[in-house]
């Protein structure tokens, strides 16, 4: 779910798209979907990457809230609480390590996308 800050970032990015580009595309015969996919979306891609990254990191940080409020009970377990439970309660170090590696593998594509986006913005390849 998008937070208020995410909506503000996306709204600011969309409003930052120059209207002259849309006007020129309309003169060339572009329809609304072409305007969005060929002009607006590429120009707001850095903001989208920022919002997706922020939301992904926020979802990974839910361990503390879940652990403090419910101790992982009532079907509120997340990967972080399961790692904690396997490592400290059940003493299954291998399972905890496997879950941690799974979390790393899940986070790696987001990291790669962020690095590529940052390099593209900086003009490096």
Radius of gyration computed on alpha carbons: 21 Å
What is the N-to-C order of secondary-structure elements (H for helix, E for strand)?
HHHHHH
The outline comes out as elongated
Largest sheet: none
Overall residue-averaged pLDDT value: 87
The helical percent reads: over 70%
Distance from N terminus to C terminus (CA atoms, Å) equals: 33 Å
How many β strands by DSSP? 0
Question: What labels describe this entry?
Answer:
single chain; mainly alpha; 79% helix
Detail the topology: elements first, then pairings.
Elements: H1 4-15, H2 19-27, H3 32-60, H4 63-70, H5 79-89, H6 93-122
Helix pairs in contact: 1-3, 3-6, 5-6
Structural notes for this entry:
- This protein has 125 residues and is mainly alpha-helical.
- It folds into 2 domains: 44 residues, no CATH class; 65 residues, no CATH class.
- Helix content is 79%, strand content 0%.
- The protein contains 6 helices and no strands.
- Helix 1 runs antiparallel to helix 3 and helix 3 runs antiparallel to helix 6.
- The radius of gyration is 21 Å and the shape is elongated.
- 2% of the residues are buried.
- The model has no long low-confidence stretch (mean pLDDT 87).
